[in-house]
Amino acid sequence: MPLLHTLPNATRLCQRRYNSIKALQAAFRDPSSPMYLAPGTKGPASPGEYELPSQSTESFGVLSDAPSLDQILKQGRTKLVQAGFHHPTIWEQPIAWGDQDSFQHVNNVQYVRYFESSRIRWMMHLGIRLGGPAKAEALSKGKGISLIIKSLNINYRRPVTYPDTLLISHKPILPKEPTQMLDSNSVNIQPPSDPAALLLTSSAFSVSQQAFVAHCHETLVWYDYEKLRKSVPGEEYQTAVWEPYLQKDSAGKE
């Protein structure tokens, strides 16, 4: 590109930068500006040292109020337990700003990771019941007999936006009965004909909305990682899977 053509563009770019610096300096001198610096004072050395005004944190609503947050978290956990989930397996998933897409809500793909994190938490508790921390670690790392996911289906009910926190939990479903969800619009999954299969259902509850925002149906398969083939688990595994859900009240137990 000829030099004569690049000079005007460079001049305009410098002018814009100069105007931006002037505007920033003016904000520092303006007492009504949140960036105001009184004469003789210095600004923060880094953005991390800057403290937002109290009204800025209040704009985040209930999530900035710790007592209120604790209360609605407890209400959300109670809703999950009432829906048949086991209290200790509830996964707390904070929503990050970057989880949103151009439609200004959490991207649908993100839920796959959310439900995955909840499923791993559920598997860790299953491993504890099977043989303690060592068995839980083996189950989560694919050592010996463990679980591998075959398929999943997510039903989206409500959009989620930042800031929010989702409470998610998994529970098993009897192979001989259709998947029962929390609303009549949910899609049922056919019972598996494979004796090595394990059906799980999970739900995501929005703390801010105090409502269920998504449900997930998953088919897992018991797999022997030493023999590299599917495995039909014995009674020990079946008992460990169902033990928490045979109790009348699992709320509050850790």
UniProtKB/TrEMBL annotation:
<dbReference type="InterPro" id="IPR029069">
    <property type="entry name" value="HotDog_dom_sf"/>
</dbReference>
<dbReference type="Pfam" id="PF13279">
    <property type="entry name" value="4HBT_2"/>
</dbReference>
<protein>
    <recommendedName>
        <fullName>Thioesterase/thiol ester dehydrase-isomerase</fullName>
    </recommendedName>
</protein>
<dbReference type="InterPro" id="IPR050563">
    <property type="entry name" value="4-hydroxybenzoyl-CoA_TE"/>
</dbReference>
